[in-house]
Amino acid sequence: MPAAAHILEARGLRKSFGANEVLKSIDLSLAPGELVFLIGPSGSGKSTLLRCCNRLEEPDAGSIQVDGEDLLSPRTDLNRLRQRVGMVFQQFNLYPHLRVISNVTLALRKVRGLPRAEAERIALGALERVGLAHKARAYPGELSGGQQQRVAIARALALEPKIMLFDEPTSALDPELVSEVLQVMRDLKKSGVTMLVVSHEMRFARDAADRIVFMEHGRIALQGTPAEILAAPPGSRARDFMTDALH
Amino acid sequence: MQWDRFVEVFANPAMVARYGPNILAGTWVTLQIAAAVIVTGIAAGLLLASLRSYRWRALNLLIIAFVDIFRALPPLVVILLVFFGLPNVGLSLPAFAVLWLVLSCILAAFAEEIFWAGLIAVPKGQWEAARSTGLGFGRTLLYVVLPQAIRMTVPPLTNRTIAITKNSALGTVIGVPEILNQASTAQSFSGSGTPLFLGALAYLVIFIPFVLLGRAVEKRFQWKRH
Amino acid sequence: MNELIAQFFDLSIMGQVLPLLLQGLWVTLQICPATIPIGLCTGLAVALACTARSGAVRWPAMAFVDLFRAVPPLVVLIFAYSGLPFFGLRLTPFMAVCVALLLAMTSYFCEVFRAGLETVGRGQREAAASTGLGKTTTMVYIVIPQAVRNVLPDLVSNMVEVVKLTSLASVVALPEMLYNADMARAATYNATPMVLAALIYLALLWPVVRLLSRLENKAAH
Fold first, then answer.
1. What are the boundaries of each domain within chain B?
2. Exposed/middle/buried for C135, CB within 10 Å: 0-12, 13-18, 19+?
3. Beta A211-216 vs A219-224: how paired, if at all?
4. Of all helices (H) and strands (E), which one includes residue A29?
5. How far apart are CA A17 and CA A31, in angstroms?
6. A18-53 per-residue burial string, b: 16 or more CB within 10 A, e: under 16
7. CA dihedral over A201, A206, A208, A214, signed as positive or negative
8. DSSP state string for A78-93
């Protein structure tokens, strides 16, 4: 695939926290519409890698191109570029003092400068996509965990990002609320959104992911389609990790 | 201690008529100082706390030094130092201005600590979520973080504000014609206890409403503490 | 710049004035142990009264607290010094200061203890009751110790306030540190004695304030 078509292109990423080298020269690319899962044991660097992709973590070395623009360059307008990278957090991080609709419109109004009516129109559209338009005037505190996470997804979607990053989106949810969020993610995949997901939801990965990237000790140990990983020779850490989680 | 004697000494009608207007004038001065100090002190405290959240090391050290110094020094010491010291280096400020300046700095110092505690109590995830949608530092602070931080600060802030604006009484030492000054002067001239009593009443009239307001505010925000 | 130093940091004046200020400091330090322990006890007592179930106990207690929260400490001091004689009670400056500080302190500490008592969860009282502990025993062994631990930073903060309040004694001519510094200032036409007094207060209280800051910020998490 031609390099210019990649939505995300990370080369040679390194990151250390103090003496601990968490990312040891990572190369990763995502093509448009791909759903890529990052899996691996804790401490393998998956969350750090994800958070580098919108510069919530600053890599010590390497380069990241997002939609053709250099994410790490000091000349880049980071705020503008961040709008093209949507992020969904494990703890949802909705703004508790604002209604659901305002949570979604805040960036549209204050960064893009859209008038309220226009912003609300777009926001309602995003909330429709996650099935929560009817909760637009509620406060986050009134919603269940699954609903809050779906609003968080809508908040990111409203900005029409080129790529969505998911940092353990269902890990903080009660088991019965997980499926509604996964359903939204399936719908997003169907509508062609590029997604990079860190998660333990292995069944979802097996069924929906285009590619699975297995990380260990700060390196990419193995990547391939779910079928390829599962077909790896026995003793392969990646295969074992996946099959353990599937049972 | 008979009631008549009490009235004779502390509520003498002649004295009330003679010195009542003075106390009233003093009350007006006290109110002006209180209002001015509250506005500038809290605004400055909020500004300092916001600057501190930028996490710029050099600036933070300055802010922390300022806050520590004004929290550690007795207000009267600073007032006297500024009032008597500055003219000797050519800067002559009227007593009212000195009182306002010093009390504002002190309120700003305490307010900064209170706002800062509120700011750091806002989960880091709120910053990250806002920044990840492209909001800049200033807008994140203004629309997402401060609204959440301020809710936590109202009860301690009301208490501190009352305590510090009461220090307007210290103005008497440098000649600001506020309540205590008027009352003390009147008492020296008249030898009667009435002006003092009137002065105390004036303070009650001004500050009891604030104290009660503080209690009501505290109740309203009680659930937030957990 | 030289002017600034000469006016505020004249070392020779500092040297001359230091013994005088230290004498004053000694007086200040005498006021504190005389008043703080008593203030803590009375504060706790009034706090318990404020949380009593009987209205007849609660209302006067709260009125007392609100009264002294509304009136400036200096006014209380002036009242104690110049007002009490009208009642036939003539106090020395030292006594007047102690009385005024005690009244103010009781109300401050009461507020602190009250907040502490309220945050000790009801569950604690219920657990104690369910094991048969009486009300007083519960108070003494379960509730009060936890309340005190919860509000330790606030207590220390208020104690710092008391040390600062002692400077008010200068207004009634008690020869504590600020009074002596002010006298020296008037005598030398130089602000250095005041600066020295300020530096001594800083030396005394800055470490405590810094410590308090760290305690408060830790508690916020």
1. 25-178
2. exposed
3. antiparallel
4. strand A20-30
5. 30
6. eeeebbeebebbbbeebbbbbbbeeebbbbbbbbbb
7. positive
8. HHHHHTTEEEE-TT--
Q: Does C198 touch chain B (CB under 8 A)?
A: yes
The DSSP H or E segment spanning B90 is none
pLDDT tens-digit profile, chain A (247 residues): 454 578 899 999 999 998 889 999 899 999 999 999 999 888 888 999 999 998 999 999 999 999 888 988 888 888 888 888 999 999 999 998 889 999 999 989 888 889 999 999 999 999 999 999 999 999 999 999 999 999 999 999 999 999 999 999 999 999 889 999 999 999 999 988 999 999 988 889 989 999 999 998 889 888 888 888 888 877 788 888 888 888 7
In contact, C97 and C30? CB cutoff 8 Å: no
Q: List b or e across C109-128, with b for residues whose CB sees 16 or more CB atoms inside 10 angstroms.
A: bbbbbbbbbbebeeeebeeb
**Candidates B85, B117, B184; nearest CB to C194:** B85
Q: What is the largest CA-CA distance in chain B?
A: 74
Please judge whether B132 and A106 are an interchain contact, meaning their C-beta atoms are less than 8 angstroms apart.
Answer: no
User: What is the SS3 assignment for A180?
Assistant: helix
CB atoms within 10 A of CB A70: 13
Q: Which of C73, C49, C79, C77 is nearest to C63 (CA)?
A: C49
**Hey, are the CB atoms on C178 and B74 less than 8 Å from each other?**
yes
Structure tokens at A138: 């509620």
Residue C127 to residue B41: CA distance in whole angstroms: 45
Q: What is the CA radius of gyration of chain C?
A: 21
- CB-CB contact of C139 with C128 (8 Å): no
How far apart CA C60 and CA C96 sit, in angstroms, is 24
Between chain C and chain A, are at least 3 CB pairs below 8 A? no
Q: Cα–Cα distance between A143 and A154 in angstroms, integer?
A: 14
Question: C-alpha distances in angstroms, A22 versus A44, A48, A65?
Answer: 7, 8, 20
Closest CA to C180 of C15, C25, C6: C25
Picking from A147, A137, A49, A108, the residue whose alpha carbon sits closest to that of residue B130 is: A108
Q: For residue A232, give both structure tokens.
A: 């790896």
Q: Is B167 on the interface with C (CB under 8 A)?
A: yes
Neighbours of A187 (CB within 10 A): 13
| CA-based nearest residue to B206, from B10, B12, B23, B18 | B23
C-alpha distance across the termini of chain A, in Å? 35
Of A101, A48, A86, the closest CA to residue A193 belongs to A86
Residue ranges of A 163-222 with Cβ closer than 8 A to chain B? none
Q: In whole angstroms, what is the distance from residue B222 CA to residue B214 CA?
A: 12
In angstroms, what separates the C-alpha of B118 from chain A's closest C-alpha? 15
The tokens 């379960």 sit on which residue? C142
Which member of C67, C75, C111 has the closest CB to residue B180?
A: C75
Polymer length in residues for chain C: 221
Superfamily of domain B25-178: MetI-like (1.10.3720.10)
For residues C87 and B5, give the distance between their C-alpha atoms in angstroms, rounded to a whole number: 9
d(CA A44, CA A202): 17
Provide the shortest C-alpha distance from residue B121 to chain A (in Å): 14
**Whole-number Å distance between alpha carbons of B72 and C207:** 9
The residue with tokens 């893009």 is A112
To the nearest whole Å, the CA of B111 is away from the closest chain C CA by 13
Query: In terms of DSSP bridges, do strands A35-39 and A211-216 run parallel, antiparallel, or are they unpaired?
Result: parallel
Look up residue C115 and give its two tokens. 């907040």
pLDDT at residue A4, as a whole number: 52
Q: Which domains does chain C have, with CATH numbers?
A: 2-220 (1.10.3720.10)
Angle, CA of B83, B84 and B87, to the nearest 5°: 90
Tell me if residue C146 falls in helix, strand or coil: helix
